[in-house]
Records
---
Amino acid sequence: MTATWTLLTLLVIAAASFPLGRARALACAGGDSCALHSLPRHYGWASVLLTLGPALVLFVLLEMTAPATPAGSLAVVACALVALAWALRRMHPGFRARQTVERGVLALLMLAACVAIATTAGIVLSMLFETQNFFAQYGWREFFLSATWAPRFQGDSDLGILPLLWGTLYISLIALVLAVPVGLFAAIYMAEYAGQRFRAIVKPGIEVLAGIPTIVYGLFALITVGPLLRDYFAQPLGLGSSGSSVMTAGLVMGIMLIPFVSSLSDDIIAQVPQSLRDGSLGLGATRSETIRQVVVPAALPGIVGAVLLAASRAIGETMIVVLGAGAAAKLNLNPFEAMTTITVKIVSQLTGDGDFAAPETLVAFALGLTLFAITLCLNVLALAIVRKYREQYE
Amino acid sequence: MSDQAARPISLLKRSGHTARRHAAEARFRTCGLGAILIGLLALAMLLASVLGSGLGAFRQTYIHLPIHLDEAALDKSGNRDPKALKKVTTISYGKVIAASLNDTVLQAGIATQGLTKDDIAGIISREAPAQVRDMVLSDTDLIGKTIQVRLLANGRIDGYLKGRITAATAARDSNVSPAQLQLADVMMERGLMSLDFNAAFLTAPDASDQRPEAAGLGVAILGSAYMMLIVLALALPIGVAASIYLEEFAPKNGLTDLIEVNISNLAAVPSIVFGILGLAIFINFAGLPHSAPVVGGLVLTLMTLPTIIIATRASLKAVPPSIRQAAQGLGASRMQAVFHHVLPLAAPGILTGAILGLAQALGETAPLLLIGMVAFVREYPGAPPEGLFDPASALPVQIYNWTQRADPAFVERASGAIIVLLAFLLFMNAGAILLRRRFERRW
């Protein structure tokens, strides 16, 4: 509560400093605003910045070391008042107020841009820290090389990542087997064959799929696709009797990825120069021959990048697998069997009532770090490929 | 060559080779069309499945009943002392309601063979006594009078009238008997029971496992709204400021490259990783409360930032350099040129991007699971700013929550909640498209 009041007091002081600074500068210039270096309001803003800046820095420092003591609040307010007095002393007509303000604003803009770095650092550091705690209690060899996943509440759990990794990759593979051909063909048709009107109607339709939240896909898997696959494929074929399965999650995730693959490939195909197509068509190739032998090979690096991005999406997807894939950690080839993924286990280990210091909970951070590392590699690779490809034709 | 020389070539007749090539062309084209059809079919199936199972949530079975609020049962002292009245539990109200229902059924002359009094009372929701109790506590003068009320019917009866439960499944169900379903049929005919629009679905809080008929989205919608407020208040200014810096001022140096790389990577980081970040930093390190909209809002802000930054940069880039040059030529500083001219011209694009980012944040579930928003919350959060720290739910998390319940009636609720979620998203996206159409300028 002291913190809120301190901030409010600071705001009041800052609000007061604007007219004070402005009036002081005008008074120094004898009321003639033309004699000032900058516009009068710049002097106001400059005094606000000069007052608030040091006080806020002190406030943040104090909050980080010793949160919200009355003495600290007093110090902050005193600092603001001193800064205000000092700022007002500087408000003479020759003071370059606009430059001061703009430098302050630029610093703020830069600070905002650095939030991205802070976020990444936060992600990496928080996970590294907890992962270290985990490996202090559980051997990394068992984590990475053990093929059993059996957490127990009493402790003495087997926490091998391999079954989870297998489930993740298997589901992603099925998703990509569906999404890549369908998405690619849809993009090719849209870019090379479809007329204006067809495009105008169908393209938004496909893109709607991209805007649907993943929880909706998850429910779709749970109530429609899962039972459908179980009743018409798995049970008649004698492959399993579970509604949630690798196939269910994979197919639904594939549907989710179709618009992702198609819109990325669409962009890339559109970047292939028209002259390549014209040359091929002029030599007598049919349109499909042109596409297969000229356009797609030319766009191939970009398409590979798109597929990698889709794969990274599939690996990190959570809600579809939570609702569609099941919770049993298995190393199995049967696609109609329930399996589980890294993301599912992160959710289940962190949403329970488990002891936060126990390896059964901390393992989620190790899983998260592994997931982050895998997707980061895929993303960096994909972005590098796509960027290189773009330069090629620009 | 000898092959070709032997065969007469006619330009007028299609050779077999050409026919094969044309067939391949047709096949390829069909494949493309087929792919698009698969996509559209999937969309249609998805929407049909959600709408089909979710529309029922917007209609609810109610029992219309005169209830005699017996003074002897509800207020023994007779002096309407609010403290004493608060001590009267829902059990007493349940008995009052059961008695009234029995009377009504008898008076209407409905045959009740094979039904005990408890069976008859069982068609009323377990939530109904609480409903009546709240009514009485807010107006103590009602005690002793006979009032006409509209009570929730039990979830199984509701399911029967919506076609989810049949007499055959009821026979195997310990919670409902076929005789009760028949009673419901007769009551429907007599107008004692009706299927009405379910406004409570949008306003009521969540309900426990045994009361799917009372579960609503009120707390979830409020929680989502709070989080969207936070995302809007934080992500929009930070995102726009970061974009202005990167697009207009950033020198070409290592720091800028680092920021760029970070933004493009953050855009592709799995959302659940942001949940881990929220749990580790905001909850464990900074000590913010579990399940609070403020934590959810912060996590979603970090997640939405890349989207908003990418959109904002695109629209800043679309403003032609001549605008900046003209402003600077007339004596504006670079900062003034950006804030007075470029930013207003880019505003529609920025707003569109912000709305799309918000839509993405609204549907995000996984990170919120990790910061404890799955908890069962029945209390509405308070008004902001304190309310931002109260436990709340969120729309997508509520959906997930309901899919984990045993009673199949919750599947209907979850699908209904998805319809609400999709309606919000449709509204936001339509707004973004309209904004773009209305204000977008091309130079």
Note: The beta strands of chain B are 59-68, 146-152, 193-197.
---
Amino acid sequence: MAEVSFEHVSMTYKGLGGDVLALSDLDLTLAEGEPISIIGPSGGGKSTTLLLAAGLLKPTKGEVKVSGETVTGPRNTTSLILQDFGLLPWKTVEQNAALGLKIRKFTKKQQDERTAQALDQVGLTEFASSYPNELSGGMRQRLALARAVALDSDLLLMDEPLSALDALLREKLQDTLLSLWKDIGYSQILVTHSIEEAVFLGKRIVLMSPRPGRVAAIVENPEMGDADYRFNPSFHECCEKLRSLLVGQGTLAEGRVDE
Amino acid sequence: MNKMHPNARTVTVRASRSKFFGYLGAIILCLIGWYVTSVLVDSPALPTPFETWPVLVENIPALLPEFWVSLYRVVIAMTIGTVIGVPLGLMIGRAPRADAVFAPVLFLLYPIPKIVLLPVLLVLLGLADAPKIVLIALTIFFQITMTARDAARAVPEASILSVRSLGGNRLDVYRHVIVPASMPELFTALRIGSGTAIAILFFAESIAGSSGLGWFIVDAWGMINYPRMFAGIIAMAVLGVIIYELLEFLERRLTRWRRAGIS
């Protein structure tokens, strides 16, 4: 599994209205197979962090390493799931799940086998020949996961993957995410706006500062890893801790219940 | 992988039946309008459908070869224009540097009605098929290139990012994203273009050469045989319908996904 490290990473976007410093001297290390959550104010460079790890952006300064190697482009076993899932509406469920395998030139037989297995793992087998438009939000999310599963990823990067779903479905899919992580054991970076989600799915929760983004605090959350964790007092303790940190930062208004 | 839904076949049958009745109704409506107008106008230049029908039937052997020639010219020309225009348009739509070179050229040449080139083409290419095909291909080329360029620019960045994050190169992005995403707009452009193409075909055939439906119509006009002229016009309408349905058929096959989720 993959170890990830950000070493003094800075990222400047050149925009029409001048340069924007999105990340400033970010230092962060992820152990092999570790799931972390990143939470923080909007514009704090959370998505940038993911795109850098995915090799889709190059840092202005510093280095991003995955498994000890400097990231210079997309890696074969890194999967990125974006907010809108990145599904292609003109491909069937099966074709969408197989896309990564196809691009990486797996044989047809391997594509079919792995895709079938991945769809089975996320419970979409009977929808193999449907199109994404015919699926519910939760099913689309699971399809995006199937794509990552099919690739046998050792690093899963997710940018607010559940934000489009209603609260009940969110919890269900958080369970799915947790059990997939436990089954496969990839390293995982989850960017989220939800405190509960961050705590449920992150062994450490990284709190980012307002722009320019850097690590403001890291909350240890060693007890995560069980579906029952939500009912555990330490889950709520951890949420409270995170909430007061966000309030202290000015990201959350005091006394306001916010997701 | 492209398995049909179990009830897809009945849906297809139902769709083609309703299409048949649609055309039938349209024909009846047009005939009534035509008849009423010709009675009101009462001029030999506008014969009634009843006067035209026997002439049409009698002229079918004469019409058929001209019909095929015209159909051949339009289909070949549209194919050439599309095959050259689509890759070029999609390419410059996603490559700012190429766009900087090609876009001004396109903008400059696009508004010029390509029909003004007919005299030049006639001198260079003679009176047979070539100048007509080139003229129509040119027109279609500009329309489809402009559309392809705009469609490629409008492709959502997220779709591209998703293919790139999977390790896809430029070619993969075109194959899995840009081409399928632009397909619906390209077909719209072709459908609109087919109307222009037939208009240009008529013009080119009526001016030069002695073949094709355009020539047939103008020839009948010269003989002051109006029913014969209208037989040619009807054949032109059929030509239009055939091209339209051909595009419809291709679009159905290539953009199956667009009808998913709406039933």
Note: Residues 88-152 of chain A form one domain.
